[in-house]
Specification:
By secondary structure, this protein is α/β, with parallel strands linked by helices. It is built from 23 helices and 29 strands. Bound molecules: beta-D-glucopyranose (BGC).
């Protein structure tokens, strides 16, 4: 926030009555902040959301704010944007959303959603970017930059640990602090510290027992004090239960209004809420209103947003599988191919999710029409199944489709999840396609080997038995209003699908990391898998996924070679320059996504085997090579220390790998990092082993024991005994312990000597 905004806001705040100030900490209606005419404070409008502008026209009433909205471009959902691995594209999409918002007088867009896809069962995963915090953070940041560069504020949501829809308005996400920092807060941290979002949205759920909107640890200690956030914390819609507790906890703006401003007034008058706390919230809301007012005049639409929606849909499509049928990979299909289209979703596409992100699209490219534009108006079509699942009808449609598939045409079969299978507001309970679709595809491949399956779903589906015989599988997610033309572009090869999985596709629900604890029980969701979310879990458990994180094919092939990693600095200042040569080894121009993973080979805490720490998307002509350079900062090596309660880079060896997915590492280099020597404070409860391992405590303990030290060392049971227990077990004088603790004091010294590391490519 600029200094001017807050100075102006402070002046205005000083002129307001207590009642006016209280009113500013909630809205005037479902979407607007409260205006104060006497003080020249206008109202500003907020609107969803992550897929496009959803500006509501009428009164929300019982529709829970889900009424009809003004027409706007419906871009691909976050699940597709996440799969693009393309910050530049995400930024352009957000900028286009912002331009439509500005033209409609909307100042803040309630997006992006950077919650981690903890379980594929979350009904709202289509609104989130990835299972990985680094990827979510980079793409979330790009979204915020795109919006705010056009003068529209972002609302980064849902802060925090809102990873399920079941009981979302009450459940307590019970997560240890390290897991919060490394997994569930990391993307928010990146966006807040690098993107200066105008607002952050506090989620409905509780975090470790306290509502996010009242959680001073979350909103004050972490968000404001540690990350330096000075924008507005707005509640999710209806997430404030107690206005006073929310203000105290750090929520500035409670939305929508519940007509309870007098509660705040009375609390200040009665001395239960410090007026300074209210003033701070008011200052921030006023600064937000100023910011919105200062943004330049609305831009006219300078680009073709529908074309951008198509470009994004192509970039987010993931070609999971493309096997040869009769010699060559089935895709792309030549424009002279004989094609038959199967699947109700080709005629009635599903291209966005349900709930608050729903957009009223300006137009829709229907896949069947777009496919006929390429392969001819006479392309036959068979619905194959119904979307509402009526078994009799499904059987008849299936028989018809199988007949149509006989006779050698290539079958383009659109499958996916019907709308009722996934939505904001509830979770899924399995990962399967509807049974009628599974039966259909099995019968199709039995009569025709040339079947291309095109999937449309927000959360993943498990490609179990049904996909084994399917040679080509294209995942398009919920691809936005240009869905149809994007599919035609990709299948024909006029465009290459350049998406990569932003989440792992497992074989079975039982294999998923949160299987035992999702969505939780009796008001609590225990994040028992800790930091082992997504590929971090499959890796360490040696569970082969159906398709790994980062996977995705194109229409050409690439090699990655000659990796070099140059480490400079140390500890919190460590950096690594990674460079690798990418070569297009195939016969077409294509795009590769280089992924950099870092592994800590030796750590006192259980760390994932590898974590994504960098990526780059490169497009090359056949035979061309490019040297791709990526910079890693200290966070690429750090973990969040649960005792010291901060990020640390410890000294030691790390492996830096590049590859085409988390399971396809092409090159690796081992480097030595001069980290910070970690000393955790020694206490009377520290064990003999911990004392002995400490460079200061070890010698102190040895001299305190004197001659008995040898006896202690010789006893294998002694190592795990805390010093204070030795008082009873071995008659060690209590005063000696206190003296030792004092002498050992000053834990956490650092050794920051820089040492560069000349690393060599040792292959993978
Ligand atoms: C959703 C938010 C949304 C808000 C306003 C809530 O139910 O969780 O994501 O921005 O409604 O529509």
């Amino acid at each position: 926030m600029s200094g001017d905004d807050s100075a102006g806001a402070a002046d205005s705040a000083a002129r307001l009555t207590l009642e006016q100030k209280a009113s500013l900490t909630s809205g005037s209606d479902f979407w607007h902040t409260q205006p104060v005419e006497e003080a020249d404070v206008p109202a500003i409008m907020m609107a969803d959301g992550p897929t496009g502008l959803r500006k509501q026209a009428g009164e929300p009433g019982l529709s829970l704010g889900m009424g009809k909205s003004v027409p706007a471009t419906c871009f691909p959902t976050a699940t597709s944007l996440g799969s693009s691995w393309d910050p530049d594209l995400v930024e352009r999409v957000a900028a286009a959303i912002a331009r439509e918002a500005r033209a409609e007088g909307v100042s803040v867009i309630l997006a992006p959603g950077v919650n981690i896809k903890r379980s594929p069962l979350c009904g709202r995963n289509f609104e989130y970017l990835s299972e990985d915090p680094y990827l979510s953070g980079e793409l979330g940041l790009a979204f915020v930059r795109g919006l705010q560069a056009e003068g529209v504020g972002a609302s980064v949501k849902h802060f925090a640990a809102n990873n399920a829809e079941t009981d979302r308005m009450r459940v307590s996400a019970d997560v240890d602090e390290r897991t919060l920092h490394e997994i569930y807060l990391a993307a928010f941290e990146r966006v807040v510290t690098a993107g200066d979002p105008w607002t952050v949205m506090a989620s409905y759920n509780k975090v470790n027992g306290t509502y996010a909107t009242e959680n001073a640890w979350l909103l004050r200690e972490v968000l404001r004090d540690t990350w330096g956030f000075d924008g507005v914390v707005v509640s999710d819609w209806g997430a404030v239960h107690d206005r006073v507790a929310a203000l105290r906890g750090g929520t500035d703006l409670a939305m929508p209004p519940f007509g309870d401003d007098e509660v705040v007034v009375e609390a200040v008058r009665g001395g239960t809420l410090e007026e300074g706390v209210l003033d701070e919230a008011v200052r921030r809301v006023l600064a937000l209103v100023d910011r919105a007012g200062e943004a330049a005049e609305a831009n006219t639409h300078t680009l073709d947003p529908h074309a951008l929606a198509r470009e994004a849909a192509v970039a987010g499509s993931v070609l999971l599988k493309n096997e040869p049928v009769g010699g060559a990979p089935l895709l792309p299909l030549s424009e002279s191919a004989e094609v038959v289209v199967v699947g109700e979703l080709a005629r009635t596409p599903r291209f966005q999710g349900s709930g608050s992100s729903r957009v009223n699209p300006t137009r829709v490219d229907v896949p069947l029409d777009a496919l006929r534009e390429t392969w001819g108006d006479d392309v036959p079509f068979a619905a194959g199944y119904t979307l509402d699942g009526s078994p009799e009808e499904d059987r008849a449609l299936r028989a018809e489709a199988v007949e149509a598939a006989r006779g050698g045409r290539t079958v383009v079969c659109l499958l996916g999840l019907p709308e009722s299978y996934e939505s904001e507001g509830y979770d899924r309970n399995h990962l399967d396609l509807p049974p009628a679709q599974v039966e259909l595809v099995q019968e199709l491949v039995a009569v025709n080997p040339r079947v291309v399956v095109v999937l449309a779903n927000g959360g993943i589906v498990t490609p179990v038995a049904w996909s084994r015989e399917v040679p080509a599988l294209l995942e398009t997610w919920l691809a936005g209003q240009a869905v149809g033309s994007a599919i035609a572009e990709v299948l024909s090869g006029r465009a290459e699908p350049t998406g990569r999985l932003a989440e792992t596709i497992p074989f079975r629900l039982e294999d998923t990391p949160a299987f035992l604890d999702f969505p939780g029980h009796l008001g609590h969701s225990r994040y028992g898998e800790g930091v082992f979310v997504g590929y971090r879990y499959y890796d360490v458990k040696r569970i082969p996924p159906a398709y790994p994180f980062g996977h995705g094919l194109g229409y050409t092939t690439f090699s990655q070679g000659d990796l070099s990693v140059e480490v400079t600095g140390s500890g919190d200042e460590v950096r690594a320059s990674v460079s690798v040569t990418v070569t297009n080894t195939g016969g077409r121009t294509g795009t590769d996504v280089v992924q950099v993973y870092v592994s800590d080979l030796d750590s006192p805490v259980a760390r994932p085997e590898r974590e994504l720490k960098g990526f780059a998307k490169v497009t090359l002509e056949p035979g061309a090579s490019e040297r791709v350079e990526l910079e890693l900062g200290p966070r690429a090596f750090a973990y969040w220390h649960p005792v010291l309660r901060r990020w640390v880079v410890e000294p030691g060896t790390f492996t830096v790998s590049v590859g085409a997915s988390a399971a396809d590492l092409r090159r690796s280099v081992t480097v030595t990092v001069e980290g910070t020597e970690i000393r955790t404070p020694l206490t009377p409860q520290s064990t003999v082993a911990e004392w002995e391992a400490d460079p200061v405590g070890g010698p102190l303990l040895a001299s305190a024991f004197g001659a008995r030290g040898a006896e202690l060392k010789a006893n294998p049971m002694a190592a795990e005994v805390p010093l204070d227990v030795l008082v009873g077990l071995a008659g060690f004088p209590r005063e000696n312990i206190d003296a030792l603790v004092e002498a050992a004091g000053g834990a956490d010294t650092s050794d920051d000597d820089a040492q560069d590391d000349g690393a060599q490519d040792d292959g993978a």
